[in-house]
Amino acid sequence: MDIIIALILVAIITISVKAVSRFLPFSVCAICMGVSGAWVLLSLAILTGVVPSNLYLDVITLLMGGTVVGIAYQAEKKFGWRGEKAFWSKFAVIVAGFYAAHVAVGGLSWTVFAIELFVLVILAYLFFIRQDGANLKSHSAKVEKLEKELENCC
């Protein structure tokens, strides 16, 4: 039943964010928000004593893993990682993120919860609100020159 409740939370949050996102001045990954929102709410439910930790820590770990993979792929898009760099960068994010998620779930407390929220807010700002990053890099003069040369090469 614990996974069913988690999946219902993911669905409700995802659909809600999708419905509201068209009114926002920036794009948001509704699925990312749904998965992250579910484990945040479940963590809060454990910390407030609403649900027992022994039933939901495994589900929270699973959802955090999904968030970590989502972070890796959002970073790839945001920073314009390509080829080998994309592989190794995502690999590093996933390994470090899985370890961080494991530590966070194992030591779930109000302090850890506050740190998790802080990290999520920073990442949401970086990936969805801030408008530079990959866009500035991909439109630099050097990149544009190389793109023109490649268009005319063959």
From TrEMBL:
It comes from the Bacteria. This is Uncharacterized protein. Keywords: Membrane, Transmembrane, Transmembrane helix. The keyword Transmembrane helix applies. The chain crosses the membrane at residues 23-49, 55-75, 87-104, 110-129.
